[in-house]
């Protein structure tokens, strides 16, 4: 027999034997918990995508919303819509003449002539579509010019009723918004297509960003600047609109407004059992609980034992936070400040129990609520010949361990280890000798080949 081949075969069998034994002995268990391993943190990204939260929403629907606003957008105007130059409204006056006021006479130019008037008849006295002038006015006989700029439709209608009361009896006024004014704005900074855009007066900041192709990967959507008259009028946080629906953080725009998206400074990533895993931009003072809220909270499958925090700048450092204390007890000591590059993992609750060691059929079994040790011992085929019933330990999902008795309640994620009896009698020595002879025979057969 070639000695080199014999040596290589012996080494191979030894390695295989060590692998088999490590799966059965407590010291050889893989104690790393599923759902907490993050092998690569070169960038705050990953399999679930590298696009920060909100970017996809702001890239969708820009052209569609603009088209609907400019064509039939008047129907979308809310009751608090403020009228301005360029808006077209319909004014209809019903009533009878004979009020206390005197009908004035007007020299109307063709461009200011109402569409339909009947100043002396009954029924419809005035019916016209009127465009609000650059000065913010409309012309309504017999009172003349009326200021419409800065008023809602309801307020303008109320003012017209008061102004016309002295001219007509049994009078009624109806005012409708027919079409919206168009305005020009500028969208600059970290957007895909910066430039000048013509929009409707209903357009809000988020729609303007969409119209400009959406944010670039470097953009901040939490520090969006609205510049009016050469000064920063407001800095809006579009997270507050996207998550909470706050319209004050997504205001309507005025003619000449400039929207600027600066470069984002700090981001973190949250993954695992949260409703909206992904990359999030964060601001000074925001903590771990703020991030969980932004991510929609944890799912029902989330483990309340602990979550993990890693950072791309410190790949070997892993911080564990008790999830129950953080989210249920609201312990301020567990609520950490966020750092740029943090990666937070919320693991799922385990659903299995593993039985290893001196049993007939070691393996992993589906957890059943309310079950005891004996249930899983039966699934594993019962004790093996050399099992030591007094040396049974349970390693919990959180890393703690305890001695196990037959009536010990089992939890999901538990690993049950059945120890072996010490070698005492001649039967034990014979058993070990037989195992050794078997191993030597295997080595010999491999070496012959």
What this model shows, in words?
Helix 1 packs across helix 10 (426-448) and helix 3 crosses helix 5. The longest helix is centred in the last third of the chain and has 23 residues, at 426-448. The chain has ten helices and 21 strands. It is 23% helix and 28% strand. The strands form five sheets. It has a five-stranded mixed beta sheet with strand order 8-7-11-9-10. The chain is of the alpha+beta class. It is elongated, with a radius of gyration of 38 Å. The protein folds into four domains: 3-32 and 351-426, Outer membrane lipoprotein wza fold like (Roll), CATH 3.10.560.10; 55-70 and 182-261, Outer membrane lipoprotein wza domain like (Outer membrane lipoprotein wza fold like); 78-179, wza like domain (wza like fold); 267-346, Roll (Outer membrane lipoprotein wza fold like), CATH 3.10.560. Strand 17 (352-357) and strand 18 form a beta hairpin.
Please provide a brief summary of the model.
The chain is 23% helix and 28% strand.
The proportion of strand residues reads 25-35%
Give helix % range: 10-25%
Q: Biggest sheet, strands in spatial order?
A: 8-7-11-9-10
Structural class: alpha+beta
- Identify the CATH architecture of the largest domain: Roll
Can you summarize the main beta sheet?
A: 5 strands, mixed
CATH topological fold name of the largest domain: Outer membrane lipoprotein wza fold like
Q: Assign the CATH class of the largest domain.
A: Alpha Beta
Gyration radius, in Å: 38 Å
Helical stretch tally: 10
Oligomer: single chain
CATH superfamily of the largest domain: Outer membrane lipoprotein wza domain like
Spatial gap, N to C terminus:
10 Å
Task: Give me the count of strands.
Answer: 21
Mean pLDDT over the residues: 79
Q: What global shape is seen?
A: elongated
Number of spatially distinct domains: 4
